[in-house]
Design goal:
The complex is a heterodimer of chains A (111) and B (115).
Chain A lengths: L3 E2 L4 E5 L4 E7 L6 E7 L6 E7 L4 E3 L3 E6 L4 E6 L8 E8 L5 E3 L3 E6 L1
Chain B lengths: L4 E3 L2 E4 L5 E6 L6 E7 L6 E7 L2 E4 L8 E4 L6 E5 L8 E8 L9 E2 L3 E5 L1
Chain lengths: 111, 115
């Protein structure tokens, strides 16, 4: 069946360092991928998205890389800050618009 | 900035009682989604509306859950009777359309605890 999973359940980084959060997906028909950030007690917050016809997309301090050959997605956060501490989810979508989420990676930023 | 509104934010109920959650999507968004999120896991879709019509409710436990979006704007999700296993975060999201490549924006969620 369809599944989206994350390689690491937790990630601890020092403030100012770069963070890389990885995600594997299994549905080669997925054409849209999104990263969400979820802080404790809140709903998921959109960070960045990428379409399947792209390999890389950059936002403010964040970059998403898509490798369709190995069905891998990553989120890079530059100069990680304490406010970046949260759980990060990747999600995939196909023509139906239904999002399938992975289990999440908890990012902890040490001051 | 437009946001998805949900209420209540927290709900504690006893098993076998009825509970209802409300969602008001971002203005103009035709597609509305209800998700359930168990602690430590990603959200799972319960039901998807396109305007007032249900598009996907394949994961909705229809023996106890119901959802409606009568006028194609706000929506209500109901559980009757609630069971202990229903304790979770219930999230509402909306997008401008139900097609792929459309970002879904989430509300703050309703945290349900069934005792």
């Amino acid at each position: 069946g369809e599944s989206v999973g994350l390689h690491l359940p937790t990630l601890s980084v020092q403030e100012g360092d770069n963070s890389i959060i990885n995600c594997a997906y299994s549905n080669s028909a997925s054409d849209y991928f999104i990263w969400y950030k979820q802080e404790s007690g809140k709903g998921p917050q959109f960070i960045i998205d990428i379409r399947s016809n792209m390999d890389k997309r950059q936002g403010q301090r964040v970059t998403v890389l898509l490798n369709k050959t190995v069905k891998h997605l990553s989120l890079q956060i530059a100069a990680t800050q304490p406010g970046d501490s949260a759980v990060y989810f990747c999600a995939e979508s196909n023509q139906g618009g239904k999002l399938i989420f992975g289990q999440g990676t908890e990012l902890s930023v040490k001051p | 900035e437009a946001e998805v509104a949900q209420s209540p934010r927290y709900k504690i109920t006893e098993k076998s009682q009825a509970v209802a959650f409300w969602c008001d999507p971002i203005s103009g968004h035709a597609t509305l989604y209800w998700y359930r999120q168990i602690l430590g896991q990603g959200p799972e879709l319960l039901v998807q509306f396109q305007d007032e019509s249900v598009v996907d409710d394949s994961q909705l436990p229809k023996d106890r859950f119901s959802a409606e979006r009568l006028k194609g704007v706000d929506s209500t999700l109901k559980i009757q009777p609630a069971e202990l296993g229903d304790s979770a975060m219930y999230l509402c999201a909306s997008s401008s359309s139900g097609r792929s490549l459309q970002t879904q924006y989430f509300g703050p969620g309703t945290r349900l605890l069934v005792l």
